[in-house]
Write a structure and sequence with these properties.
Elements: E1 6-10, E2 13-20, H1 23-38, E3 48-55, H2 59-77, E4 79-90, E5 93-102, E6 116-117, E7 123-127, E8 130-138
Antiparallel strand pairs: 1-2, 2-8, 3-5, 4-5, 6-8, 7-8
Helix pairs in contact: 1-2
Length: about 140
């Protein structure tokens, strides 16, 4: 079951806030939230698999890099990620096998273009084995 996402409106920006039980769930839910901003009310199908590797100096940077890579793949290859099938972690380097589908304007309604994933008000905190996450997107 996917955590409940609260969408944040801010002048020139939008964002997501949610709680998750694991890093796997953090990364998967953050991707889901981002694609709900881009294509609201559409559940992305698990049709096409891709391998994605990201790294950063800390977990916050890894999360921003993850979402930035997914946004880049959407902008350049029209790829939308639905699920993380497998996630391997080595420090602050993540290798993920993801599934998703290619954007189809006949069935997907892209409403908002995300220009960038920001560090503004970014939150990725663990307390009592539960993660609190907030990400702001420049639109």
């Amino acid at each position: 079951m996917r955590p409940e996402i609260t969408f944040i409106d801010h002048t020139g920006d939008t964002g997501i806030h949610f709680y998750a039980d694991s890093l796997h769930q953090v990364f998967e839910t953050a991707a889901f939230g981002m694609f709900q901003i881009i294509c609201p009310h559409y559940e992305i199908q698990s049709i096409l698999e891709k391998e994605i590797t990201i790294e950063g100096g800390d977990l916050e940077e890894c999360l921003v890099n993850w979402l930035s890579e997914l946004n880049f793949l959407f902008q350049t290859q029209q790829y939308m990620s639905a699920k993380i099938l497998k996630m391997d972690r080595d420090g602050y380097r993540f290798s993920m096998l993801v599934s998703g589908e290619t954007f189809d304007p006949e069935k997907h309604n892209a409403e908002i273009e995300i220009k960038a994933v920001t560090f503004h008000k970014l939150m990725l905190e663990e307390q009592d084995h539960r993660w609190q996450v907030r990400v702001i997107f420049d639109i």
